[in-house]
Amino acid sequence: MPAPRPRKPPRVWQRMLSGRRLDLLDPSPLDIEIADIAHGLARVARWNGQTKGDHAFSVAQHSLVVEEIVARGDPDPRWRLAALLHDGPEYVIGDMISPFKSVLGPDYRVIEARLQGAIHRRFGLPAAVPASVAKRIKDADRLSAHYEAKLLAGFTALEARALFGSTRRAALDEALFAPRPAHLVERAFVERFHQIEAESLATQRNGSR
């Protein structure tokens, strides 16, 4: 009998519209572009798309809200950039709802952490932000999720509070959560990225004088 053909290894890279090929198991910062991140996140729906409105409430729009919350209490552009990119890996792997992440187990977290680290290195951030910064971003993430759950995803106020905490410490404008067309959110995400990047460069220049 002829020897069996060797199996072709499975493809573990994702091709981006920029032409980059990002390896999910060994992501390189050189294969990461902000245009790809913005494009992908603007088309990934939060809550698996189970939200009210003519448009999906995208991960990109959620990220803009989280960055705005963090910016209120932290002027450091590095950490505002970290907030904007806190869900960056989802431009590759999608937005997995929390129950499904629990089903997938720790392997999902390993892949997500590798992608997040590569994204951070690409844009001059530490692979892991300080614990105090991570907490501020997480608190902002939960605050946004509370509003999204209540305004868009059909949760009662009591359910939203039980799952995501209270909103008493920081009231948000409900207009932030009006789902917008993907192309507009993509543009806003890129513009905000460049604004923060410019502020970061200016801060570095002033600090070196």
UniProtKB/TrEMBL annotation:
Gene3D superfamilies: Hypothetical protein af1432. SUPFAM superfamilies: HD-domain/PDEase-like (SSF109604). This is Metal dependent phosphohydrolase.
